[in-house]
């Protein structure tokens, strides 16, 4: 039996971004002894990078805003594939979650009369994003960390131990969710610094590990986004929902090559920035799709007037949802009207005084000055699409965040599916983290409380041994590596690069059937080679080893994306098929669920040829009539299938 450190907790939260920390605060406040595990340093989650703001219908900038309008915008943005109950809860609860952050010490930018300021973003009918300059995620994480520390101080006063009820395990990676009799019993992981294995036993596990962007070559995502939580859920037997929907943000940096993909926040357009092609034309006016025709300005003059008088003018098409803008930029570049480095121009310099740009967009100013030697107060930026967010994710219950099919497993944040349908609106992620992080923590704590310590699922030693052997495979043949005759050892970095190139080129922003089939073949080949991924050295801080383990997750998740994308023969939101260019109402009531074909199988055992993922088509839940009544019938006709309309 493997010797590993073991501890017992009520709730284990995997991930310390906005969703994980909010879940942990809630679970601890409801009395659960809660452990938080994160791959990176505490405080360095992806959420820190969030720039533009948190969407919440507080009505501070326009009193016409309310949760019903926010719900409507979110459903429109997601092209009606959203799990509607999640969209409803999100719109209703987001303002409360933002105000709550202020009571915990967050300081948002203010309006002149002292209320929380709200800015415009694509797809939101009213200015709705509460923000702190363009560093909102930093303030969100800072506040949640501060809250955690204050809870720990409270625990110290009562128990003499800061970590008696809430402990953070930083720089630790979870590689397996453990189960007994189909129920969660804990997690297995390793410390990145020492390489030591550990087990945290708990009846409730909340997965809050964020996204999958590191499977694509051009991405705004950081190194942590290797789809770990998606893979952990799959391996534990929980299905993933609608993985074909990957968001390509329209504006990433395109130059210099070393920074390609880094995000240029949507706030630039929200604050008045415009997109132009190489001919100087504001081309977005040519790309307003029929479903949005009556909501967007038809002339530059009207679009410009909207910033000062939104009640009597329509918004400029630069503020269409992200999927529309990304496709338009892609089309302009393809038609030969791109910028010198293969993007288009985003100009704020002719729209705002230099002082206002530096005040409202300080990070963007520094980012371009330092990384590209471009002064955005005097010249346009060059931008193009970058892989940014995954709408697909763990299938969850809307109210409780419970993962489907695995009692004790919960998911919140970017790793969970359903909330954003086929396309997420900007700002709706940070609010999602807070709303559903809280709900996941709440229900995970309740579930744990219902299981007395003596009656909890026990950790199965055989599973711990198997998890340890799986983690050690890259080091030695004895630990289960394939025979040398299978081929030479493979370098995990080479495999990762090939995977990223494959996903970028063959399952990227515009998709075609033959290319996706080629991608699936290539993924099969990479899977076979990944069995031979070998590393040298020892377990103390060995990044090659860490990557070799992450490859299992990226390969699983990439196969889900490619299979689901091939199956869905329409274009909707973040999924664009050149061979099926329109949204097809017949696909509206369809969800695609991905499961592991052989739930006991791991990478080593999987047949490289046949793949590891099985797809199932299930029906979406009909939208509640009172929510449907928030839309005009004419609009619903564009989205809903025939049988749903009747
Ligand atoms: P994260 O914040 O990424 O946290 C994931 C956590 O899981 C990390 O602590 C990580 O270490 C941990 N983890 C991962 N795998 C493991 C493992 N195997 N074991 C242990 N721990 C693990 N959204 C908005 O709403 N508004 C914005 O303005 C905005 N701006 C953005 C700007 C940028 C540049 C980017 C990239 C995204 C932006 N987003 C924005 C999106 C938003 O930031 C993310 O969707 C959101 O922060 C995800 O939060 P999360 O809590 O789900 O995950």
TrEMBL record:
Residues 496-590 form the Fumarate reductase/succinate dehydrogenase flavoprotein-like C-terminal domain. Residues 10-430 form the FAD-dependent oxidoreductase 2 FAD-binding domain. Keywords: Flavoprotein, Oxidoreductase. It comes from the Bacteria. Gene3D superfamilies: FAD/NAD(P)-binding domain, Fumarate reductase/succinate dehydrogenase flavoprotein-like, C-terminal domain, Succinate dehydrogenase/fumarate reductase flavoprotein, catalytic domain. NCBIfam families: PRK07803.1. This is Fumarate reductase/succinate dehydrogenase flavoprotein subunit. It comes from Streptomyces marokkonensis.
């Amino acid at each position: 039996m493997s010797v590993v450190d073991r501890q017992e907790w009520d709730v284990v939260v995997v991930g310390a971004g906005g969703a994980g920390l909010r879940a942990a605060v809630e679970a601890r406040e409801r009395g659960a002894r809660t452990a938080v595990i994160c791959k990176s340093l505490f405080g360095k989650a992806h959420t820190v990078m969030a720039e533009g703001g948190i969407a919440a219908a507080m009505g501070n900038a326009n009193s016409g805003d309310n949760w019903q309008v926010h719900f409507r915008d979110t459903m429109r943005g997601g092209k009606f594939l959203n799990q509607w109950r999640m969209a409803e809860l999100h719109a209703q609860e987001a303002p409360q979650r933002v105000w709550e952050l202020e009571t915990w010490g967050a300081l948002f930018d203010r309006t002149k009369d002292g209320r929380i300021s709200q800015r415009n973003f694509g797809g939101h009918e009213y200015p709705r994003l509460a923000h702190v300059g363009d560093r909102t995620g930093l303030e969100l994480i800072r506040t949640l960390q501060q809250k955690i520390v204050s809870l720990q101080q409270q625990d110290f006063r009562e128990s003499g131990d800061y970590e008696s009820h809430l402990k953070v395990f930083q720089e630790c990676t979870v590689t397996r969710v453990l189960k007994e009799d189909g129920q969660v019993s804990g997690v297995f992981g390793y410390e990145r610094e020492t390489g030591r294995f550990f087990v945290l036993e708990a009846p409730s596990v909340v997965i809050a590990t964020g996204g999958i962007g590191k499977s694509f070559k051009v991405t705004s995502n950081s190194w942590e986004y290797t789809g770990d939580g998606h893979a952990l859920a799959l391996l534990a037997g929980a299905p993933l929902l609608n993985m074909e929907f990957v968001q390509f943000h329209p504006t990433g940096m395109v130059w210099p090559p070393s920074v390609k993909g880094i995000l240029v926040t949507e706030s630039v357009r929200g604050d008045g920035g415009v997109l132009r092609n190489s001919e100087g034309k504001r081309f977005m006016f040519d790309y307003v799709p029929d479903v949005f025709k009556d909501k967007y300005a038809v002339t530059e003059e009207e679009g410009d007037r909207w910033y000062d008088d939104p009640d009597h003018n329509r918004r400029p098409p630069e503020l269409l949802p992200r999927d529309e803008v990304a496709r338009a930029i892609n089309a302009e570049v393809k038609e030969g009207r791109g910028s010198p480095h293969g993007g288009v121009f985003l100009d704020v310099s002719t729209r705002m005084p230099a002082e206002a740009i530096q005040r409202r967009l300080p990070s963007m100013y520094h980012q371009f000055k330092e990384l590209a030697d471009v002064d955005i107060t005097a010249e346009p930026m060059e931008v193009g699409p970058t892989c940014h967010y995954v709408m697909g994710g763990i299938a969850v219950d809307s109210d409780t965040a419970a993962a489907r099919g695995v009692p004790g497993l919960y998911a919140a944040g970017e790793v969970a599916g359903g909330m954003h349908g086929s396309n997420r609106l900007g700002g709706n992620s940070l609010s999602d983290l807070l709303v559903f992080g809280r709900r996941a923590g709440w229900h995970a704590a309740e579930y744990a409380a219902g299981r007395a310590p003596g009656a909890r699922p026990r950790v199965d030693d055989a599973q711990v041994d198997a998890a340890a052997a799986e983690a050690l495979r890259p080091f030695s043949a004895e630990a289960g590596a394939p025979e040398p005759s299978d081929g030479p050892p493979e370098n995990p970095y080479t495999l990762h690069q090939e995977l990223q190139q494959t996903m970028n080129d063959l399952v990227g922003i515009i998709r075609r059937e033959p290319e996706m089939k080629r991608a699936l073949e290539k993924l099969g080949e990479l899977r076979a080679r990944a069995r031979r991924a070998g590393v040298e050295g020892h377990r103390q801080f060995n990044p090659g080893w860490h990557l070799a383990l992450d490859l299992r997750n990226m390969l699983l998740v990439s196969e889900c994306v490619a299979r689901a994308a091939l199956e869905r023969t329409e274009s909707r939101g973040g999924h664009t098929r050149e061979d099926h260019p329109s949204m097809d109402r017949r696909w509206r009531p369809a969800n695609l669920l991905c499961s592991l074909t052989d739930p006991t199988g791991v990478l080593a055992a999987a047949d490289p040829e046949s793949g590891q993922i099985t797809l199932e088509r299930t029906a979406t839940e009909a939208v509640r009539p009172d929510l449907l009544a928030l839309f005009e019938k004419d609009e619903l006709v564009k989205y809903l299938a025939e049988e749903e309309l009747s």
